[in-house]
Structure formats: C-alpha cells, structure tokens
C-alpha cells in the first residue's frame, strides 16, 4: 500500500508497514526455494575465502563443503538415513555447519538441545536414534544416563577439532577447561571422530537422498524460560525464508565486516538462522566464540573489534557494568546494536543507548522481536518511530502480521491489544506434539495458516508492533498485568534509588487463572525498599500495584533470559509455606 491508501482497519489487509521498505530492497529479496547447501554455494564469495574464524584458525569455504560431504558418508555408514533425527549436543563449533549440510544431504534432521542432562537424554530417546554426537568433555555420569536411555553409540568430537589452544587468551582457556572433569568419557567407551570419518571413507552405498526442501532439517527445543520446553521443527525452506529477508543487515561499504557470536549454543533457532547462517550467507567473517564466560564478553568484543555482535539482555547487562572497558575506549568498530531474546524496558534501553553512544557508536540501539516458532526474527526496526514502550519495529516484508482477540480468530484493528500472530513464510513445520502444533498453527477463515505467538501487543496505523507482555495475566478484581507496560511506567518515573527493575507475575492460587505482580529492584547504595515504595505506587495504576517489592543484588538470568520463571516458582513456594504457617 502507499501512504495515501485508505485503511480498512485490518492490518493483514492493509499491510501499512510496506511503505517503510524501499523498492530497491524489495527487488533484492527473492525466496530461494532451494536447499541450504545450494543457497550457501550461491552466496559463497570464494572457496579459498575464510568463512569462520575459530580460535586462531580460519576455516575456508572449501573446508566447510568438503567436510559436509565427508560427514554425510559417515552418517550413512553408522546407519542414519532419510527421515532420521541426529542428536547433536555440541557447542557452536565450526563442525556444526558441515553436520547440518550433511544431514540435509542424506535427508535427515539435526536435533539439538542444551538443557539438563536428563532433558538432553529425554530428547535423544524420543528421537529414536541409537547414536548421538557429543564433545570430548561428556561426563561419565551423563554417558551412563544416555546408556540407560538406550543409546548405543556415542561419537565424540573434540571441542578443538578446529582451532588452536595456544591462540586462546587465558580467560578463554579457563572457560574451556571448566567443561572438563576428571571423570570424562574415555576412548574405550565411545567412538572417536576420526573413526567415524574413516567409516565414511570406507562406505560404498548411496549417500544423497532425494531433494526435499520441506522435510525437517533442524529440530531444537524452546528454552523453557517462559513455560514448558517444546521441540520446534524447521526445514531448509522455512529457515531460508527468513534468512533471505535479512541478508542486508550489518553490511558495510569498502570492507568485509566480521560478525562475533559469543557463548550462545546452536540449540536456538535465532542462533542458527540469524546469528550464524545470516553472516555466512552475506559475505561476513563469522567469528565463533563459544568458550567464553558471560562475564568476559566485554574482553571478546574489544579483542576482536567486532563489527557486528548479536546481543541479548544478559550481554548488555554485563558490558554496561564492565569495569574493564576504559571510559575513553572507542567502540565505533561496532556497526549495529540491538538486543533480542527478551524485551528491554525503557530504562534498559536508555542505558544501552547511552553506553554505546558514549563509546563512539553511531547506531540507534534497537530491540528485536521473534520466536523459535517463527524461524527467528519477525520484525525489523526500520520505521521513524521513537523506540521504547515495546516498539519492536515493523514486520519483515514477506510476512503478514496482525493482532487477534486472544483465544479466537477474530482480527482486531489498530491500537487494540491482543495476541500477536503471523502468517506467511518462515513459520515452523510444527512441534513434535500434534496437539501443541494445532494450537499454535491455526487455519483461519482467510485460508491462511497463522502462527499464534502467545505474546500480547498491538499495532499502530503505520504497522509498528508494540509488545506488552507474554500471554494474558489478568488480576482478580479487574485489569491486566502487562509486564512491559508496568516496567516502563516505573522506568519512565526515573525513581531515585532504582538501578534496575523488573516485574514477575506469579499465579494467584486463591483465584484460578489470575496473577499477582511482584516487583524486583536493584537499588543504588544506601537506598531501601521503603525509600522507593511510595514513588513506585504513585506511577502505577491501582491494579498494577505489586504484592511486594523485593530488593536483589543483581538481575538473575537463566538460559540467557531474566529468570522470571525461577523467581515465580520461589514466590509460589514461599506463599505456600506462609499459608501452612
């Protein structure tokens, strides 16, 4: 539509966000409709060009493709074939990309999970596989649990199959060493990586499966930080549908930029699609940096002079509070800045912008939005609207998004809060649970399958999306406890003494389906909760008033997100004890 078009009141029909995309960009975006292997070949800048930098080793494109062929033969040799799931419990190491391409070649799918040993074993057992892939620091205890689950063959990839230990600074060596114990698995109990590859060299059977870009290729589990963890399934087509819309992000004129990925594992859709495949497919040097403690990401950003560094609130928190970044350090080598994973409130957003601006960065700090089910990103911050208040930008150009009345297929109009939904390319094939799939992916009366994302928000007349909370949280007596809205009201009040703050909605056990809000605060030195209480209550609507305000030393994180679910569980346990007492 054009800026002068008349709005019908239905965002899915009007698509007002399209006015923000220049035609020259739209002309560049074409759905690939090909294999992942073909897409990377098509976008490879040269076989001798480094694709990945990994602790002192530059892995060139020729090596990536050659290893993919080698691994594909070996996968066949150990019994994997079309339709099989390949449990792969690795950090983000260069070998992951050839493994993914090899799985595609034989018609199988990679299964990743990065949770507790028990949950990883559960995923492997559910896959039906008898063979799994692990690193050489797998513990004896974990091995025994896999064996109890029926896993017969454990193939071990050294953490530094690529890379050079002597090139690692001490803080990286310390992190890597922390994964090893005196009770790691032994060669007698497992299959070495070299033995695995040798089996492939001796294999003489068929390797390639018929090409099918719609078959499962990548399976992973949601983090479980906002509810029960679920297995999400994507194909080459669903991943490339997102990738092709984002290739321009983080580009530079006159030089090939680098792209640093710290800590994050390949068991997250956003990592694989938006943080790994994206730079590889857009001629950026991908720096894989998995063996770094969270508290040391500041050192890595300065060491590599990163041009692009995918951030999450945990990283933002660590780098802003770093004591090792000099006040006059020039961080203008960063070309982009923004955080995904979970929403930043207005105070967090302002602090991030002030920090990066004070260190010479020229970008506007933004917040991203997406989910595993949608193939990673679903929006782009490409509109002339003030950031904050849940503004996550506009839908990607090949997607259609709108807001629906929760629990229904009734589309709402502009500026009405409801469930954020998406149709079009990039949506998952489904979960491994058909019932959960049918709830998330629903056929609407318009003939399109819509992904119901579970987040609450609204869209304005320009197509800008504002996220207000995760799921509906009504309070007994009336009103909804929209976490983003509540946090931003406190943030904008700029209450003296509050360094950081966030809300946790805890189930109200006395009123089924309702919730109670708790405010957690990090206070500046010398302040108490009593000093801020009156100001907090004054900036919130009555139904938002917290049951309690709890002071903590720092924001807690779990699985890369604010640990709201853990705090909620603690609050529920505490309330039960009080009730018994």
Written account of the structure:
Helix 4 crosses helix 5 (96-106) and helix 4 (61-77) crosses helix 9 (193-202). 44% of the residues are buried. Helix content is 31%, strand content 22%. The strands form 8 sheets. Strands 7-6-5-3-4-8-9-20 form an 8-stranded mixed sheet, sandwiched between helices. Strands 18, 19, 21, 22 and 23 form a 5-stranded antiparallel sheet that branches. It is an alpha/beta fold.
Topology, element by element:
Layout: H1 11-14, H2 23-28, H3 36-43, E1 50-54, E2 57-60, H4 61-77, E3 85-89, H5 96-106, E4 109-112, H6 117-127, E5 131-135, H7 140-148, E6 153-157, H8 170-177, E7 191-192, H9 193-202, E8 216-221, E9 231-235, H10 236-243, E10 258-262, H11 269-281, E11 285-289, H12 297-304, H13 313-320, E12 338-339, H14 346-358, E13 366-367, E14 370-371, E15 376-377, E16 379-380, E17 394-395, E18 399-404, E19 418-424, E20 430-431, H15 434-440, E21 441-443, E22 449-459, E23 465-470, H16 483-493, E24 498-507, E25 515-523, H17 529-539, E26 548-551, E27 557-558, E28 561-562, H18 564-580
Helix pairs in contact: 4-5, 4-9, 10-11
């Amino acid at each position: 539509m054009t800026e002068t078009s008349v709005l019908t009141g239905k965002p899915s029909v009007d698509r007002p966000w399209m006015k923000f995309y220049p035609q020259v960009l739209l002309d560049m975006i074409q759905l690939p409709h090909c294999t992942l292997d073909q897409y990377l070949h098509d976008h490879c800048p040269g076989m001798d060009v480094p694709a990945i930098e990994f602790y002192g080793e530059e892995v060139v494109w020729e090596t990536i493709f050659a290893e993919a062929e080698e691994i594909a033969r070996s996968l066949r040799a150990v019994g994997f074939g079309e339709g099989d799931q390949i449990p792969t419990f690795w950090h983000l190491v260069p070998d992951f990309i050839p493994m993914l391409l090899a799985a595609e070649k034989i018609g199988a799918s990679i299964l990743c999970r990065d949770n507790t040993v028990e949950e990883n074993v559960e995923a492997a057992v559910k896959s039906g596989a008898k063979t799994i892939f692990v690193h050489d620091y797998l513990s004896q205890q974990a091995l025994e649990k896999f064996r109890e689950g029926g896993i017969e063959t454990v193939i071990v990839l050294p953490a530094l199959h690529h890379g050079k230990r002597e090139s690692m600074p001490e803080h990286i060596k310390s992190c890597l060493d922390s994964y090893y114990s005196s009770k790691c698995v032994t060669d007698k109990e497992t299959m070495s990586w070299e033995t695995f590859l040798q089996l492939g060299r001796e294999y003489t059977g068929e390797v390639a499966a018929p090409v099918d870009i719609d078959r499962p290729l990548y399976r992973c589990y949601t983090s479980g930080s906002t509810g029960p963890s679920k297995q999400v399934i994507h194909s080459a087509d669903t991943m490339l549908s997102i990738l092709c819309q984002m290739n321009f992000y983080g580009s530079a004129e006159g030089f090939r930029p680098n792209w640093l990925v710290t800590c994050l594992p390949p068991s997250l859709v956003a990592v694989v699609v938006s943080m790994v495949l994206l730079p590889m497919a857009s001629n950026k040097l991908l720096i894989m940096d998995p063996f770094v403690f969270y508290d040391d990401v500041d050192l890595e950003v300065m060491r590599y002079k990163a041009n692009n560094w995918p951030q999450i609130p945990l990283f933002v928190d660590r780098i802003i509070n770093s004591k090792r970044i000099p006040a006059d350090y020039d961080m203008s080598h960063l070309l982009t800045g923004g955080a995904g994973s979970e929403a930043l409130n207005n105070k967090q957003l302002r602090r991030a912008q002030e920090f990066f601006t004070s260190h010479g960065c020229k970008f506007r700090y933004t917040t991203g939005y997406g989910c595993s089910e949608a193939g990673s990103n679903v929006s782009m911050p490409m509109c002339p609207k003030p950031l904050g208040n849940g503004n996550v930008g506009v839908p990607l150009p090949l997607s259609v998004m709108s807001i629906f009345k929760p629990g229904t297929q009734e589309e709402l109009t502009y500026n009405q809060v409801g469930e954020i939904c998406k149709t079009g390319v990039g949506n998952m094939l489904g979960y491994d649970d058909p019932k959960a799939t049918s709830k998330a992916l629903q056929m609407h009366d318009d003939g399109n399958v819509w992904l119901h994302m579970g987040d609450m928000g609204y869209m304005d007349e320009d197509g800008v999306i504002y996220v207000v909370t995760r799921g509906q949280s009504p309070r007994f007596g009336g009103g909804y406890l929209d976490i983003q809205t509540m946090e931003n009201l406190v943030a904008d009040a700029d209450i003296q003494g509050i360094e950081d703050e966030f809300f946790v909605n805890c189930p109200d056990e006395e009123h089924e389906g309702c919730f109670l809000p708790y405010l957690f605060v990090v206070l500046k030195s010398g302040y108490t909760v009593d000093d801020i209480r009156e100001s907090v209550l004054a900036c919130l609507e009555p139904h938002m008033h917290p049951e309690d305000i709890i002071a903590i030393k720092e924001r807690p994180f779990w699985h890369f997100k604010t640990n709201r679910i853990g705090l909620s569980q603690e609050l529920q346990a505490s309330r039960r004890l009080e009730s018994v007492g």
